[in-house]
Amino acid sequence: MTAEYKVNGAVAVITLNNPPVNGLGHATRSAIVEGMKKALSDNAVKAVVITGAGKAFSGGADIKEFNSPKASAEPSLHTVINVIETSSKPVVAAIHSVAMGGGLELALGCHYRVAAPGAQIALPEVKLGILPGAGGTQRLPRVVGLEMALNMIVSGTPVPSEKLAKTALFNQLAEGDLMEAAVAFANKVADVRPLPKVRDIKIDYPNYEGFLQFSRNTVKAMAGPFPAPLKCVEAVAAAVTMKFDDGIKFERDLFVELVQTTESKALRHAFFGERAATKVPDVPEDTPTRPIKSAAVIGAGTMGGGIAMNFANAGIPVTILEMKQEALDKGLATIRKNYENTMKKGKLTPEKFEQRVGLIKGTLSYEEIGQADIVIEAVFEDIGVKEQVFKKLDEVMKQGAILASNTSTLDVDKIASFTKRPQDVIGLHFFSPANVMKLLEIVRGAKTGKDVLATSLQLSKKIKKTGVVSGVCDGFIGNRMIEQYSRQAGFLLEEGCLPEQVDKAIEKFGFAMGPFRMGDLAGNDIGWYIRKRRYIEKPEVTYSKTADLLCEMGRFGQKTGAGWYDYKPGDRKPYPSQVVNDMIIKHSADLGIERRKISDQEIVERLVYALVNEGANILEEGIAMRASDIDMVYLTGYGFPLFRGGPMFYADTVGLQNVMMSIEKYAKGHQGVAWKPAQLLAKLAAEGKTFN
Ligand code: 3H9
């Protein structure tokens, strides 16, 4: 039963019991109504308490039911709330741990609310691209005031119950046992009439028009491509401008509209995608993990420093090893400066600053890191260098330590073979800047121990990363796909585009940064180095030589003050470069290509479908476990627009047959050999199916 019914003297207790978070799915909604019917028909019952079992009062509507008939099947959440609100016996919500979304809306339909301290109270629907659709936008302003409600609904941020203790949201904050307090409260109010209803409270805000207009302007400027935040403001506005029942209807219409938008579906896909990524079928949740109480990082460069900061931020002491004192000092000074900047912005207190800096130590001696529970190597991306490091780690590290490589492309199995303990070796691929970027690619080698994988997944959560497991291949999930994207970007230059046009088109699509601006930021020499290795190994792969020509000109990007674009000293703004554009046009002529005008649509399709096609190969080969893992890699590590849900989700929304048709068309064009349609894509397209 998804809600239990028990009678405690004159009080009936309905306990939601739908783990993990008491989502208000159809079965739970029905069970609540059943419970209410029993309570109303039992003359011995004078009042009702509703609470939640386990770790939540309720996390809200069951998101998995959205866009399915179950979501609106009766009793709908509206009906449930109506049954409670119109009940002839008082209903008390006993709130603890989490009361979010529909869960909070349910509580707002009750006549009274008793809460435990520390409960997270939120209407987080906006984060899923929707708005509270069961009265939240109409009732919350009536109990916490217009401004507070608008902030909570537009941001979706949880507020601890004690911060709301003085508002009309709660009738009591329970000091001791919540259920004892709630039952006692119910007994106390059992005979009080009339029953108070939130809907009857008047919102007192004389100059609401000015405030609402200000809110519209601010929210519009911040909402970007997402329609929900502004609709949230409109719905809250209705709480003051309309009669209650009209406001409820208005809110309902907006909810129905938003729940069907691609933006909302994309956000929900990302919500479940993030959680699915932590699950590995052959590594059950109870797999033993190794304790990580100390860490070491090899290399104090930008990457090593950023990685070390993650550990310090999570309270784990970390030692950075370098070869030379000068490099070590420079690395430690950069870390200090990074923290100082965060402190100056007011995002870190002086105590936390000291604490974090204090957790990071430097050393020149391998012996000093031997006792660390995990070591992450972040040295130069060269298999020879990695071999030296891992042989040394095998000598010095204690038994049971995890030996991780931050390689972005190299063979983790080969790296593991440099040690006598391949079961302890794993790839932990951070993205630059490593202290900021959310993605952590966890590369599982053929011999990586299950406990090492489980520990790494647990660690990713601890250091607040989105961990995604990848199998071993050149470039893993993210970089293997980006190679195809970069190849298309290069071919587009040969055929008629200039860097600015390509960047602008894909940025308009929603990418944070186009490929050429990205190259200038990351350093074009890095790709140059990788291409030299990669294309010697794979001579059959064609690619545009424009990027090599650029590097031969010494234009490595922002760090050399010149790349695909020109830069002015102290200014990161890219200016189109005449010499680069001349080089590109000359290169086309050298290849005998007649340059043509290329549409933005073609640019976007070629870049994005190149990702999709390679993503399909990766999925088929089992390098990624599921399509949503690929989407999470692109959303959290490569600036793919969140409102489009990731490359695989986006392809699903376009329709895989349409994607296939475009790929077949491009396969007939310049360097069409680069477009070998992935078998999985072709198969799913033919069957009318989707990736997700
Ligand atoms: C809504 O209420 C609409 C209404 O206004 C109108 C309706 C008409 N549904 O995050 P965790 C699952 S919209 C289904 O790892 P935590 C989650 O997928 C809803 N499933 O745990 C995961 O499953 P699995 C508004 C849900 O302790 C498991 O629970 N509510 C839901 O770190 C554990 O999740 C929200 O937006 C759900 N509503 O955090 C709240 N919620 O084990 C969204 C969770 O299979 N949820 N699951 O991977 C959260 O913010 C967090 O999950 C919460 C717990 C804070 C509740």
What does this structure look like?
It is a single chain. This protein is an alpha/beta fold. It has 3 domains: 257 residues, Alpha-Beta Complex (2-enoyl-CoA Hydratase, Chain A, domain 1), CATH 3.90.226.10; 176 residues, NAD(P)-binding Rossmann-like Domain (Rossmann fold); 210 residues, N-(1-d-carboxylethyl)-l-norvaline Dehydrogenase, domain 2, CATH 1.10.1040. The protein contains 28 helices and 19 strands. The strands form 4 sheets. It has an 8-stranded mixed beta sheet with strand order 12-11-10-13-14-15-16-17, with helices on both faces. α18 packs antiparallel against α24 and α26 crosses α27. The chain starts with a strand and ends in a 6-residue tail after the last helix. It binds (S)-3-Hydroxyhexanoyl-CoA.
Brief overview:
With 692 residues, the chain is of the alpha/beta class.
What key attributes describe this structure?
single chain, 692 residues, alpha/beta, 2-enoyl-CoA Hydratase, Chain A, domain 1, Rossmann fold, N-(1-d-carboxylethyl)-l-norvaline Dehydrogenase, domain 2, 3 domains, eight-stranded mixed sheet, 28 helices, binds (S)-3-Hydroxyhexanoyl-CoA
- Using the 3D structure, state the CATH architecture of the largest domain: Alpha-Beta Complex
* Content of β-strand: 5-15%
| Overall mean pLDDT | 96
CATH level 1 class label of the largest domain: Alpha Beta
CATH superfamily of the largest domain: 2-enoyl-CoA Hydratase, Chain A, domain 1
The helix-and-strand class reads: alpha/beta
How much helix is in the residues? 40-55%
Q: Largest beta sheet, briefly?
A: 8 strands, mixed
Unique ligands: (S)-3-Hydroxyhexanoyl-CoA
Cα-based radius of gyration, to the nearest Å: 29 Å
The shape is globular
What is the CA-CA span between the terminal residues?
Answer: 31 Å
Spatial ordering of strands, largest sheet: 12-11-10-13-14-15-16-17
For the record, the count of structural domains works out to 3
CATH topology assignment of the largest domain: 2-enoyl-CoA Hydratase, Chain A, domain 1
Q: Oligomeric form of this entry?
A: single chain
The tally of beta strands, per DSSP, is: 19
- Uncertain spans: none
